[in-house]
Amino acid sequence: MARSACRRRCAASSASSRPSGGCRAPAAIRSSPAWITWGRSPARRATWRGSTTPCRDRRRPARRAIRAARNAAAFLVTNAEGAALHLDDLRRRPQDFEPLSRDRFLAGALIPAAWVARAQRVRRRYAEEVARLFEHFDILLAASTPCAATPVGAEWFDLGAQRLPVRPNMGVLTQPFSCIGLPVCGVPVWGAHASLPIGVQVVAAPWREDLALRVAAALEAADVVRAPVAALA
């Protein structure tokens, strides 16, 4: 962010003990007794009162909290909506569902309504923020999964130095987009893995499926993405 923009967003609106109205931090931070002051050092640091944390460092906890809230809302909403869609079939013929999927749908059916209502409020605000992105960009690109496809039945996968469970992590990158109803075209990109593609999401603004499909088609024509039919031994 440009220094002047950082200064405008993080400088204190007054010298009172009330939180600054100029900082676009979450309400939980704005309501704290601390307020933001503009440092007079050559580095022009925006700090909490009594702190020397640079502006960019101070924003990180707030951004992490916002991201965590969005992910939690997406998880709750998609689980609740998926469970509602399949609830009748779950009651009539639960044995026809794959066990892991059935467990997830059942868990979604038991989510308290108060949680879903709160998640819907977060979803609405998040959708408004993302809509502003499409005022400047036609398409967003994002990974579909944190790794290539895992073996059938695998419960864990390695991501760098971390060992993560498959079930809660494979959909964590798609939920934020599906939760707010954005059109997405998934494309397989080769080269990052020895023998498997990595899924990439081509994300468009609401009701602009045509753009997502046009970009995917252009990528395929340029041989950037391809989906060959697997050879059966």
What descriptors fit this protein?
single chain, 233 residues, alpha+beta, Methane Monooxygenase Hydroxylase, Chain G, domain 1, three-stranded antiparallel β-sheet, two-stranded antiparallel ribbon, 8 helices, 44% helix, globular, disordered N terminus
Most strands sheet: 3 strands, antiparallel
Q: What proportion of the residues form beta strands (DSSP E)? A: 5-15%
Helix amount: 40-55%
Spatial ordering of strands, largest sheet = 3-7-6
Unreliable stretches covering 5 or more consecutive residues: 1-51
Q: Please provide the ordered H/E string of secondary-structure elements.
A: HHEEHHHEEEHHEEH
- Supply the number of helical segments: 8
Mean pLDDT: 77
Architecture overview:
This protein is an alpha+beta fold and about 230 residues long. The protein folds into three domains: about 50 residues, no CATH class; about 70 residues, Methane Monooxygenase Hydroxylase, Chain G, domain 1; about 90 residues, no CATH class. About 45% of the residues lie in helices and about 15% in strands. A hairpin with an 8-residue loop joins β6 and β7. α3 packs across α4 and α3 packs across α5. The protein is globular, with a radius of gyration of 22 Å. The N terminus is likely disordered.
